[in-house]
Write a structure and sequence with these properties.
Radius of gyration: 10 Å
Order of helices and strands: HHHEE
Helix content: 40-55%
Length: 59
């Protein structure tokens, strides 16, 4: 399993980099890494970030 940062700011940067460079959607990233999209979304939403599927990134 890939390293997934626990710090919300590092997670934000890591996920957006993966989405920009390697994956067409949050679901594709999570499916490939065998993690729940809800887990990532909940952690980032608690830090004030939301996923925009049209832009394929958290903002």
């Amino acid at each position: 399993m890939a390293y997934i940062p626990s710090d919300p700011i590092m997670l934000f940067s890591w996920v957006n980099t993966k989405l920009r460079d390697e994956y067409s959607s949050l679901e594709a990233l999570c499916d490939d890494l065998d993690i729940s999209p809800c887990d990532i979304s909940e952690k980032l939403e608690a830090a004030g970030y939301t996923y925009n599927p049209d832009l394929n990134k958290f903002m």
